[in-house]
Amino acid sequence: MKSKAIIISILSFLLLILSFYHFKFRDVFLVKAGTSHFFSPGLVGFLSYLLPGLSIAAALLLWFKESKSAGAAIAGLLSLGYLTYVLLILNIGDASCDCANLFPDIPFKWQIVLFLLPLLMCLFLFLNKRLVRSS
Question: pTM, whole model, 2 decimals?
Answer without folding.
Answer: 0.82
